Amino acid sequence: MAGEVVAGADALVVDEKDHVATALKDIAAGDTVHYRSKDQLVTVVALDPIPFGHKIALVDMEEGTHVKKYGEVIGRATIAIERGRHVHVHNVEGIRGRGDQSQEA
Amino acid sequence: MDHIKGYQRANGEYGIRNHLLVIPTVICANQVCNRISQSVSGTVSIPHQHGCSQIGADKVRTFETLAGTGRNPNVGAVIIVSLGCEVINPHELAQSIGETGKPVEVIDIQEVGGSVKAIQKGIEIAKRLRAGLDQEPVVDVPISELRIGVKCGGSDATSGMASNPALGVASDILIAKGGTVVISETTEIIGAEHVMAARCSTPEVADKLYHFIERFEVEINRMGADMRGGNPSPGNIAGGLSTIEEKSLGCISKCGTSPLVGAFEYAEAVPGKGLYFMDSPGNDIECVSGMAASGVHLVCFTTGRGTPTGAAVIPVIKITGNERVFKSMNDNLDVDVSAMLNGTLGLNEAGEAIWQEIVEVADGKETKAEILGHQEFSINRIGPTL
Question: How does pLDDT run across A73-97, given as a tens digit for each residue?
């Protein structure tokens, strides 16, 4: 399911439906990030530092957006997320395994 | 290579290692078992915290895990050490393991009169059994007899992008050769179960998979907590994984693309050939111990953060897609597929490299975890201690 990495890319998009790319190196705020999308080499400017392995937003997302990676939903945006922002636990929450939101709790 | 070297057991199964295993039925027998295994080389013991003050399905699970570990074909002979008053019955355990035809002997600490006498008796038995095992002939084993577990632990974002999909290629190679792959970690298919269910060979298998997941989610709801922080763990989160869904979607690629032909309970014997799912927590040691008890010969273990653990009776091959960790924890890691992430190593090439390592380890090459003596063992508990 993972896409193969193209030499020279700074971030990997696994599926064309994805809202995020995964950083292949440490990225500083202000850096221009190269990634491949639908066979095009595209760029996005990082608005935050994005550590290796962390995610950068490729599109603007409203609060409540079901965020996609691997072409599947990985969670829900807890606030609006701009293109170029670091996407992680501060702005995405899991939808599953939420005993804290359970009726039984 | 379509054959590897191994040992044929009395029940027709093949082992890729020839261990003499010392099993404590209860925590109270741990020290006696450790002293026996320290005194006779080529002997491994599996100390654990359980075996007493347990009832019902929880007691059965502990029994089945101990029995399955003893029945694993990598084990040639077994010594069971009992205190004498615990809930796990050593003679029932000996009978279950003995059905495989391998030698099993029981020592009762209360009966022989204390630790020193039990250790002395154990050493004498161990020396005799070990001498017998050393006479076992090495035979050719068809690769189609090989059963492997696929596991990930200490994951980061490289696991989902590199090491897991590469391991998936190796899994597909083994299935294509007629072998068997077991994937597990019920908690780590949460959010990806629809993808797995679509690959099940029958609706019954998919139903069983959904049943395992529902059972886990009911427990999480009962705890009243968000699973994030426990799984994904703090290390997973530091490595870039934000939610259990993201972790799961990265996890499942490690079992390749073959149809899922069955699903079974923790520590139950693998029912046949092909790709199977075993119910288990994601916890590394509990999961790998359950896989060993189910009868897999070895486990392929991907990691991004790095982890040293092995297993008592099966080799554990460590695979990483994280270049920094392969260098910093090189004494623990066997295969590096990080070049996938700079575009210089293709997915299929990486999978072939893992497959080559599987064949070599099955054929006798020691893994890093074996060289360092990592023999971790732990039993999944599902009930309270009384």
Answer: 999 999 999 999 999 999 999 999 8
